[in-house]
Model the fold of this input.
Amino acid sequence: MDVIDRVKLLKTLEGVTYSEIAGKAGIEKKRLENMIGRKAKVRHEDIEAIADIYPQYEVWLFTGKEFAADGQISPMTKEAKERLGTQGKVG
Done:
């Protein structure tokens, strides 16, 4: 999984659109779409801007690694924690 795949997964699991990510990150929507479509090179500053929105995913976005003890997780870990946190609760 490369950085583009991680951005795609973040979008899906966070339930946001590329327009929302681009707007919050200050990246032109067309540029983000071109990156996702692999028509433009990924710039470090673009991923850094996305990581500023989702600081808990910063290490994962750049490297694909997680350091949960330091609060650096992936969207999959967040989703799993949320699912586990709801188990056994009466609602």
Summary: The mean pLDDT is 93.
